[in-house]
Amino acid sequence: MSRLVTVSRAAKLAGISRGNLQRQIREGAITSFEGMVDLEQLAQKYPSVNFEADSLLEKLEQIIENASLRARSGKTTTPPDMETLAARVNILNDELVETKLEISIFYNIFDKLKSKLKTLASSEPEAAKAIRDLQSWLLTEIDTISEKKFEQYPILATDTFLRIMAAQVRLEPTGHEFFVEGSDSILESGLSSGLALNYGCSNGNCGKCKAKIISGEVKKIRNHDYVLNEKEKIQGYILTCSNTAVTDLILEADEAGSEKDIPEQSITAWVRKLVPLKSHMLTLHVKTPRTQRLRFLAGQYVNVEIPGVASKKLHVASCPCDDMNLQFHIDSRCDDVFTNYITTKLKPNDAIEIEGPAGHFVLHEDQPNPIVFIAFNNGFAPIKSLVEHAMTLDVTEDMQLHWLVPKEEDLYMHNHCRSWADAFDRFAYQPVSYGNNDPVQLLIESLKDNMSEHHFYIAGTDSQISKTKNALQAQGIPDESIFTETA
Ligand code: FES
């Protein structure tokens, strides 16, 4: 009578990363049944997961806190509304009734079996011992039910709470999963989980976020101008930007499988702020209109134009999971019209034209191999975007970052990288200031012996990239495991 849950939910319940759980499934430590995990087995493996009443409150407060943070940052998320909560509680109530009925039927069967065994033991003296053994085994099994109940209580309580506070969405055909909290739109939740869902206006006008419900219930959170035809409505199509998930959902939805699926865009955005980093670097923060966000994949670049002044190709240094708030790294030492204008004249609310995205240096998230990110100097910008995207997607549990710079002060986001290493158990950060030494040589010396399973992402100058690629190949790393910023 144990329940099967998805890998994402199981990881959430056990308090571990999805990558960690997937590794345990690969290694046979946990069994999965067609991508689902048995709650009973999970509870046995993680008996210490403690979910007392206080934790429930803490979690509720956390969700409310997150919601108010989002509200402060311009997003209008709230905890689930009463109607959604009632629908979820109703579903759980139906399950409870069904489970109670099943349990009473099973107890009935046990009682009948006990009395049949008793009768049999008196009428079949030669089999009496075997029957008595069977009786005592049955009684012991029934007794252990109540012990098991307490063992599984924490994880089942967590599961119930999560099912009330958030709905889980699985996308077909990719099998990607994410949670929808509060009354967030399905689209917004999918994007902030790092998925490249198809969309256009985010506002109910273009119809590009159309998806088909395979199972589950949704609720409209905004009226939309785009009109679904009668056939589409009957088939279960909805706009993901205008609906939230009431229950767990399975949706058939389009996702960008590669950079080729991302359309070329032209967006007028606004300067939010210019933040000095260490040394000579600055972060340019840009905000797009809510209804015209930048669809891109981590690692790609765009053409940034200051109207009437100059333009420059810049890698987006932030995660595509926040497509409205973009970051670019500016090296103030560059002596060109674009950089000079940014450092001396640009101010908040100035308009910026963005065209793109372009570039093939993107994450191959379909393969859960351990990842080595290598950034030479300012090649850190696309690497930062890739690292953040890999963390959001939880594609692998084993990542390392090697950032190679001439001098220590060139590690312009050193603390940021250290905070990644602090926050993630299996993220290793290796800063290298190479001075007059050969950076590629130092890098190769710092790598472990057997890295044939790893994927390598390299960003830097053309010569740094090709030298590193050759050195890795000489170490036996296959060409298809090396991804570089240049074509
Ligand atoms: S993104 Fe345009 S209608 Fe949903």
Descriptive tags:
487 residues, alpha+beta, 4 domains, 5-stranded mixed beta sheet, globular, binds FE2/S2 (inorganic) cluster
Helix content: 25-40%
What is the count of distinct domains?
4
CATH class term of the largest domain: Alpha Beta
Question: For the record, what is the CATH homologous superfamily label of the largest domain?
Answer: Nucleotide-binding domain of ferredoxin-NADP reductase (FNR) module
What's the total count of β strands? 21
Mean model confidence by pLDDT:
85
Q: Total helix count?
A: 13
CATH second-level architecture of the largest domain: 3-Layer(aba) Sandwich
Low-pLDDT ranges = 50-77
Task: Describe the structure in your own words.
This protein has 487 residues and is of the alpha+beta class. It has 4 domains: 1-44, no CATH class; 167-253, Roll (Ubiquitin-like (UB roll)), CATH 3.10.20.30; 263-358, Beta Barrel (Elongation Factor Tu (Ef-tu), domain 3), CATH 2.40.30.10; 371-484, Rossmann fold, CATH 3.40.50. Helices cover 39% and strands 23% of the residues. The protein has 13 helices and 21 strands. The chain has a 6-stranded antiparallel beta sheet, with helices on one face. A 5-stranded mixed beta sheet has the order 5-4-10-6-8. A 5-stranded parallel beta sheet has the order 19-18-17-20-21, sandwiched between helices. The radius of gyration is 27 Å and the shape is globular. The model is unreliable at 50-77 (pLDDT under 50).
